[in-house]
Amino acid sequence: MNLDDEARAILRRNDRGGYTVPTHGLYPYQWNWDSAFAAWGFSTFDIGRAWDELDTLMASQWDDGMVPHIIFHQSDPGYFPGPDVWGTGRTPASSGISQPPVAAIIARQIWAADEAAGTARIKALFPKLVAWHRWWHDFRCTTGPVAITHPWESGRDNCPDWDIGMAGVDGSRVGDYTRRDTGHVDPEMRPGKEDYDRYIAMLQFGRETGWDQARIVAEGPFLMADPGITFVLLRAHEDLAAIGRALGEDVSTLEAWATELRSALPLIWNDALGAYDARNLRTDAFAGVLGSGAFLAYVAGAGNPRLDAELMRAWDAVNYGIPSADPENKIFDPRRYWRGPTWPVVNALIALGLTESGHADLSERLRAETAALIRKHGFYEYFDPVDMTPCGGADFTWTAAIWLTWAGRERETTQQQGAA
To answer: Are 275 and 325 in contact (CB under 8 A)?
Structure first.
């Protein structure tokens, strides 16, 4: 079986009928941004199933517009924290936080491949996506850049960006619990117990408020400006506005949100770091660490020469892909989740921005390095960027999707050149 066929088979195996799990065992539910990337992967061979994935994701939208980061479609006692721990009281059950809003970015990509038949599908999705973007604007952009109230909301759970905010969270009174993730993968590749205690403490605070978003922002134990989501939301605003214009919709509000968010970017620029940086909104202190969230600036057209220099320094210090944390910083851990490994899904977003900003050579380098990891070890969740060790879950949906949509696309270029 070639890699294209294997990638399609992984998407089919992880398909639960209308939604896709990231991988068997480790992640048995529907995850928000994973699901959007799954839709992108499906669009390369089953366009109807791609739209179904986005429809199922948006069908779990809350009344206030939020799309939760986990949707618990069916019971699985092997996962913690499950729906009983979150206690959101929703049907279907879900978590009480969101995740990077890549859905509009992906929806635009899918519609470009299905312009005629997909118009009805994108038109039905459009108001739901606008409502979600409104939620981000109203509840997470209160200080300018996007803020997160839980590291899990960032999608980059334990990255060093959050260390200064995590230090202020008391996890000593969360009670006993049993993690399930470390039973599926090497504990050295997952967040540590101290981190997890704090994650649960933040969850418990949200539950105690009845998931009152305004109160969580005002009083919660953790609130940090996140460059990664700021750039994703900025790009998503602009892509959703482009979709709306093509549909004949009024997009003035979306355009205003995008302008407002772009004007807030100086608030997360750390001149001492020479890069965009996370910021603790409880103390106004910068995290002072370089991470892959800063490099998502390219997908929002927000790169600059100083950031270019930091990108090349961090990238050239490893061998394969963009590291999730600065490899020349003592916090770098090349196999522990978001504290150093390279993630194909983030590489794909950065590469999209590099191409659009005139760095096609760097985009191709990133694609080739990501493809080398997948060819060597298969469709793992993430990889050690120094020695290629595969990490996290195997047969991973979004890695398979990224192969089909981007990392494995060299074959098309080669074929086109041969035809010429």
So the answer is: no
Residue 27 phi/psi, 5-degree rounding, is -130, 90
The rounded distance, in Å, linking the Cα atoms of 278 and 154 is 11
- Asked whether the whole model's pTM tops 0.85, one would answer yes
| Token pair 């399609």 in the structure block, residue | 8
Give CA–CA dist 420/244, Å, rounded.
37
Place of tokens 């939208």: 61
Angstrom CA distances, 99 to 40, 141, 153, 173, stand at: 17, 14, 5, 26
Please provide the DSSP assignment of 325-369 as one string: B-TTSTT--TTSTTSS-B-HHHHHHHHHHHHHTT-HHHHHHHHHH
What tokens does 205 get?
A: 């605070």
CA distance 225 to 315: 24
- Tokens matching residue 294: 């800063």
Residues 6+ apart with CB under 8 A from 126: 240, 243, 244, 247, 249
Q: Return the structure tokens found at 110.
A: 């899918």
C-alpha dist (Å) from residue 129 to 133, 136, 236, 239, 299 = 6, 11, 10, 11, 19
Dig out the tokens for 290 from the structure. 């370089």
Residues labelled catalytic: 157, 381
Contact 11, 19 (CB under 8 A): no
State the Cα–Cα distance between residues 13 and 21, nearest whole angstrom: 9
Query: What's the pLDDT tens digit per position in 163-216?
Result: 999 999 999 999 888 766 766 777 676 777 899 999 999 999 999 999 999 999
Using DSSP, state whether 366 is helix, strand or coil: helix
CA of residue 191 relative to chain centroid, distance: 17
Q: At what angle do helices 252-263 and 227-247 cross, to 10 degrees?
A: 160
Per-residue model confidence as pLDDT tens digits over 246-267: 999 999 999 999 999 999 999 9
Which residues have C-beta within 8 Å of that of residue 192, sequence separation ≥ 6? none
382-395 average pLDDT score:
97
